[in-house]
Design a protein that fits this description.
About 55% of the residues lie in helices and about 5% in strands. It is mainly α. It has one domain. The chain has a two-stranded antiparallel sheet. Helix 2 crosses helix 4.
């Protein structure tokens, strides 16, 4: 007998098929998109730095984390409920009750994702292998679940 909270999302079996593999590819695709965006912004900041006598160069150290946070937060909290990489891999993110993920949860998820992959990589992988819904540690902490998109 499994315990289920009253507001947990009830998922059909197909909803979690291949989620781990698809997420891995989606992360790679999203990192490519983020890096391209950062590259364009870096060139713009470098040019603006010449005009502002180097003042905008102070933004360069926080550029990648800021773009990644906004990219994930805005895309996941948007009407498609997924980043471009997740959409290409047929995935979406929701709260555990099935509702749309608010920006704050999506942003917290992004921060926890980057922290967990830089600090706790083995633990993140072990947790997803034993969790009932194939959720990663940062999914659990931010209250979200990644599933296949509903057709």
């Amino acid at each position: 007998m499994s315990f289920q909270r009253p507001n947990d999302l009830v998922l059909p079996p197909r909803a979690l098929e291949g989620v781990r593999t698809r997420r891995s590819f989606a992360i790679g695709i999203d990192l490519i998109f983020i890096t391209l965006l950062v590259g364009v912004l870096f060139v713009a900041l470098a040019f603006l730095g010449l005009v502002t006598f180097g003042l905008t160069w102070l933004l360069i150290p926080v550029l990648y984390p800021a773009v990644a946070l906004l990219y994930n937060g805005l895309a996941i909290s948007g009407w498609r409920r997924a980043t471009p990489g997740m959409r290409l891999m047929d995935l979406e993110m929701r709260l555990m009750d099935g509702s749309r993920t608010p920006f704050i949860n999506a942003a917290v998820h992004a921060v926890l994702f980057y922290l967990s992959w830089t600090i706790l990589t083995p633990l993140v992988l072990i947790v997803t292998l034993v969790s009932r819904n194939k959720r990663c540690l940062h999914d659990m902490l931010s209250g979200v679940i990644v599933t296949r998109r509903a057709n």
